[in-house]
Amino acid sequence: MNIYNYSLLLITCLMSCTTQVKKQDLQTPTPTAEINHADWVLNESLSDEFDGDRLDATKWFDHNPTWLGREPSLFKKENVSVKNGMLILTGKRETLVDAPKGYHTFSSAAVQSTKKVLYGFFEIKCKAMNSALSSAFWLYTQDSTKQEEIDIFEICGRNDSTPSYDHAYFATSHYIIKTKDLQISDHVNHKSEVRYADKFIVSGLKWTREEIIWYIDGKEIRRRKNDFWHSPETINFDSEAFPSWWGLPAESDNGGEFQIEYFRYWSNKDAINADNIFVNDMK
Predict the structure, then answer these.
(1) 149 is a catalytic site residue
(2) Backbone phi, then psi, for 119, in 5-degree steps?
């Protein structure tokens, strides 16, 4: 083989190898916000691309096992669906027949993980509901004495009386000691020029023993020291009414759809064999 043919063979081989690496990278997603991609390992047993025609019952409940929803909106299983590669949570203005006391006017939706998770990197691609019924992505656990909660976001996609809510992304942390009536809460209100109900975003959270960091589209929007959040927590998507916060939907607001294209969870490579996934015992 002459030097020319050998060079062509070498170039072809290198191009083929490079193509294979790129295909492999595409098949194994990495956190959008994380520069040190090699530090994280995708956990496929918890991650979900929502490519089927129904919710994966091994990963998710189509309701919140311990909560009916924030009054007056009632969580309904029928408002949870998977179609066209999306998890869809629907909020509706409707008459609720035979609903528990306090629930009326609106139905909404909740999805909760069948597992609890301690630390990691959490990410979804989503579009908020065009309604004053919320769109939320959050982690929490509770028992009779305390509640730990990390709200990755709560969004009011539409507010006819206060339009500034349409542009607000609330990133919040709560630590509640029930036996002492003590609550530690703080949040950041991240503003967007474009309404959150008018665009898809990539929402991320990095939760480690030392700190908690919130991201939108790969950019950090909030960071805080991890003082309290050291218990395994459930993963939640839901839609709620907030009559005492931003108010109930206006009469012309009949609800909408909170659309989630994927959920991905990564463990730190140094903790991949650690016991960081637990059964959801909040039933």
Answers:
(1) yes
(2) 70, 165
Number of helices (H), then strands (E), belonging to the chain: the values are: 1, 18
Give me the pLDDT at residue 20, please: 38
Bridge partners (DSSP) of residue 237 are: 111, 137
* 21 contacts: CB under 8 Å, gap ≥ 6: none
Q: Which of 145, 162, 139 is nearest to 247 (CA)?
A: 162
Buried b (16+ CB within 10 A) or exposed e, 265-282: bbbbeeeeeeebbeebeb
Q: What is the pLDDT of residues 40-79, one digit of tens each?
A: 999 999 999 999 999 999 999 999 999 999 999 999 999 9
Residue in 34, 123, 148, 154 annotated catalytic: 154
Report the distance separating Cα 153 and Cα 162, nearest Å.
19
CB atoms within 10 A of CB 178: 13
The architecture (CATH level 2) of 35-279 comes to Sandwich (2.60)
Identify the bridge partners of residue 182 per DSSP, sorted by sequence position. Answer: 177
Task: Give catalytic status of residue 71 as yes or no.
Answer: no
| SS3 category, 175 | strand
CA distances from 35 to 167, 199, 233 (A): 27, 24, 25
Q: Which of 148, 149, 233, 240 is catalytic?
A: 149
pLDDT digits (tens, 9 = 90+) for 190-243: 999 999 999 999 999 999 999 999 999 999 999 999 999 999 999 999 999 999
Distance from C-alpha of 256 to C-alpha of 265, rounded to nearest angstrom? 27
Q: What angle do CA 128, 214, 26 make, to 5 degrees?
A: 75
The DSSP string of 81-117 is EEETTEEEEEEEE---TTPPTT--SEEE-EEEEEEEE
